[in-house]
Write a structure and sequence with these properties.
Oligomer: single chain
Helix content: 10-25%
CATH superfamily: RutC-like
Number of strands: 6
Radius of gyration: 15 Å
CATH topology: 60s Ribosomal Protein L30, Chain: A
Strand order of the largest sheet: 1-2-3-6-4-5
CATH class: Alpha Beta
Structural class: alpha+beta
Shape: globular
Number of domains: 1
Length: 136
């Protein structure tokens, strides 16, 4: 097993806690759950509504994936957290599904939670896999 690589992506979202944007080990890349904050204006108000927040979270995850030389096609699994599960689940799914082709959707778990950092409605983390033979 190789030593893990701890990635902080230049231009990526400002961390809201002490963590790395991603940690990589043996081709597996674990992305920390992202919030709907704008990396260019981290202190700006969060986008309004679940759809806009989901888009911002997914764009933040794309930034991190790009920072390690990957994209959404490398994602194997997502965990999604919603603070208003019953109200937002359908609209969340409608927005989320646009990021993956129907025949290449990652495994996913979605959980209702009581609260998220920065007052967010949604947080998503990911596990991606680097194609065999590629280094970091």
């Amino acid at each position: 097993m190789s030593d893990p690589l701890f990635h902080m992506i230049a231009g990526g979202p400002r961390p809201v806690a002490p963590f790395s944007h991603a940690v990589e080990a043996d081709g597996w890349v674990f992305l920390t759950g992202q919030m709907p904050t704008d990396p260019a204006v981290p202190d700006a108000a969060l986008p309004d509504g679940i759809e806009a927040q989901t888009r911002r979270v997914m764009e933040n995850l794309r930034l991190i994936l790009a920072g390690v030389g990957l994209d959404l096609s490398h994602v194997i699994q997502c965990r999604c957290f919603l603070t208003e599960f019953e109200r937002d689940y359908a609209a969340f799914n409608e927005t989320y599904q646009g990021y993956f082709p129907p025949d290449r959707r990652p495994a996913r778990t979605t959980v209702g939670v009581t609260a998220l950092a920065v007052g967010a409605l949604v947080e998503i983390d990911m596990i991606a896999r680097r194609p065999m033979g590629e280094g970091a």
